[in-house]
Every structure is written in C-alpha cells, then in structure tokens.
Amino acid sequence: MSSYRELARTPGVGRIIAAQLTARFPSGMVSLGLLIHVEHLTHSYAAAGIVLAAMSIGQAAAGPITSRWMGRWGMRPVLTLLTALYATTIAVLALAPLPVPALIVLGLIAGVSTPPVQSAVRTIYPKMVNSRQLGALYSLDASLQEIIWVAAPVLVTFLALQVSSVVALLVISVIALGGGAWFILSPEVGRVRIPRSRTALGRVLRKPTVLLTTGIGVLFIGSAAAIEAGVVAAFGEGGVESGLVLAAYALGSLTGGLGSGGIPMSRWSAARRLVIVAIGSALTLVWVSNPFWLAFALFIAGVGFAPALAVMLAGTSASVKFSETAEAYGWINTGQLIGAALGSMAAGFAIDGNGPVGAYLVSIAMVVGAAIIAAVFHRAFPDLRHRDASPIPDTEQLPVIT
C-alpha cells in the first residue's frame, strides 16, 4: 500500500482520477438506458438492439480518430466539442419521439461523439507522476474503473424502470456534461500538450505491443462479456443472484488490481495474470447453478482481471512515443469494444444451444486464447522490472544555421 500512499500525496492525482471516473460514468449507463428507452418507445427489442449496435459501431470507428485529434487540436477543444455533442445527442434521444431510422442515426452520432476521456487520462498519467509510480497508477486506474461497471448499471436500471427511461437518459446527459467539464477544466488537462503525430493514422499498430494488446483485448473483454451474459441467463436480468455474482467479479478485480500495484511487470506478467482469469472462469463449470460458488469462481477470475489490464496499459505506454499514446489507447479501446460485441453475440448463440454453460464455455475459450497469445508473443511486451513505463520521448531534427 506504500505505492498508493505515495500516489495519494502526489498533487493532482486524486482529483484527476475522480474527474475521469465521473466523466466516464455515463459509459456504464448508456447501453442499458438506451436499450430500455428504445424498447419502451418502439416496443421492439430488435429496434433497440440495432440502435445499440449503431452506437457501438460509431464508438469503435471513431475512437482512434478522435484520440488522435487531441494531438492536432489539443485535448480541451476536442473533449469540449465531443462532450457537448454527446450530451446533446443523448438528450435528443430522451426527449424526441422519433422513428427508428432517426434513432439509429442518433445512436451512431452518440457513438462517434463519445469523448475519448480514457485515452486522454492515460496519456496524461506519465506527465503527472515519476517513473517509479507509473505502474502503480495504471493498476489503480484499472482497479477503480470497476466502480463504473458496478454502480452505473444499478443506477440506470433503477431510474429507467422505477422512474422513467426519459429521466434515465437525461441523467446520463447531465453527468456527461458535469463530469466532462470537471475533467476538461482540471489543471493537468491544460498543462499537458500532446505533440502532433507525424505518422499516418493506424501506423502505431505496427508496434508489436500495441497490436498484441489490441488483439488480446478483443478476446479478454469478449470473455468478460460472455460470462456476464451467462450469469444473466442463469438467474434472470432482475435476479438478485446475478448482481451478487457480477459484483463478486468486480470486487475480485478491484482487489487484484490494488494488490498488484507494487509488483514489477515482466514480459510474462500478462500471460500469468490471464491464466488466473482463465482458472477462475473454468471453475464456473464445477457448480453452474449455485450463485455462491459462481461468485467465488468469478472473484478468483477477477483477481487477475485488473492486473492483466494494467500490464497491457503500462506495456503500451512504454512502447510508443508520447505523441502516439492517445491513438494507441484509442485502438486498444476499439479492440475491447469489438471484443465485447463478439463475446456477447457468441454467448447468445451458445446460450440458445446449451444454456448458461454454453456462455461459460465461450468465455473460457476466449480467455484461454488470450493467455496463449500473451505467452507465445511474450517478447512483444517490454520488461518493466528494471525500467519505467514512461512513453518514448518525441524527437525531431532541428534546423541548424550555418
């Protein structure tokens, strides 16, 4: 815990973490809120699914582009524009009784305009702390984001079902504006200037670590999405058991992330931590109908979740130039979005054929695949036991007057 006490004493760290978590909180609310609202509006889950798919496509396509824009025009202008557009789009979706095609277009706009807060803050981190603290900060970031995935769905479901889906979406819009403003106005966002990237869009994917982390993220996050679908299918959307089991998963991730902050990261760390996730996921097959056993199994899986994510974040930071960090994290986020969609889709087919066990098998297969890839290509990860995770400094030729 000494690493975290040191971080807590570092000026601005607590504020920027709280601000970015608030700004990102709507990301844990919007899918469920939009699903419930569009279904209430159209009486069609198919229509709601198409709107959500449009939003996901927009997020996946725009993430690397909007992240890269921050190096061209600055973080504050890009984040301000996108936050305003995102919040306005969500408010229009809430208030305007539009036909399905218009809802699909608005869903796409909401996805495209999702502010790249995650890319921004992970680009800022190396400029806020010294090199020794960076690994612990990435672990803390990966751990605390579990607050979003536990609290946000509970809040939006309560608002949408017990109050009104319109109110739920308006609350999302207000939090996006308030949290976004808090983050954008943070002094650290104004002080850090991302150099303009001099390479073509997508060139950063030629970096082995970025490509590997993006690919692993597809399987890794897909595994989590599949197991979540399996738990919901086993106990029902409103079942208390579902909440208990998924909360245990998040608690395990929070515990593992906080506990691993001071552990040095080697080339094998990602593979080892993914093996923990795979073991916990496999334990779900021992007693598939018992919520307490599933909670235990997924707590074990969670213990490896945030630590594995932290390794990938730190490894990416140490492998790219500072001007490339935002775009690199944008591609990684895109991979995770694709993984979540693929995992949910594969789990849905598996549940139809074999019940919740089918989803668990999909999850196990995906995380085992991620662990194998991380092991086979472990040399693509930097060894951070004897170096820090700071980005490579940007250098350029200077004109010489003769």
Description:
The protein has 402 residues and is mainly alpha-helical. 76% of the residues lie in helices and 0% in strands. The protein has 17 helices and no strands. The chain has helices at residues 2-8, 13-24, 30-42, 45-73, 75-95, 100-112, 117-128, 134-144, 146-163, 165-184, 187-191, 208-235, 240-259, 269-283, 291-319, 325-354, 356-376. α5 (75-95) packs antiparallel against α6. The longest helix has 30 residues, at 325-354. The radius of gyration is 21 Å and the shape is globular. The termini are far apart. Mean pLDDT is 90; it is low at 397-402.
Low-confidence stretches: 397-402
Tell me the number of strands.
0
> What sequence of helices (H) and strands (E) makes up the elements?
HHHHHHHHHHHHHHHHH
Judging from the principal axes of the Cα atoms, what is the shape? globular
Number of helices: 17
- Main sheet makeup: none
Topology at a glance:
Elements (H helix, E strand, L loop, with lengths): L1 H7 L4 H12 L5 H13 L2 H29 L1 H21 L4 H13 L4 H12 L5 H11 L1 H18 L1 H20 L2 H5 L16 H28 L4 H20 L9 H15 L7 H29 L5 H30 L1 H21 L26
Helix pairs in contact: 2-7, 2-10, 3-4, 3-9, 3-10, 4-5, 4-6, 4-16, 5-6, 5-10, 7-16, 8-13, 8-15, 9-10, 9-13, 12-13, 12-16, 12-17, 13-15, 14-15, 14-17, 16-17
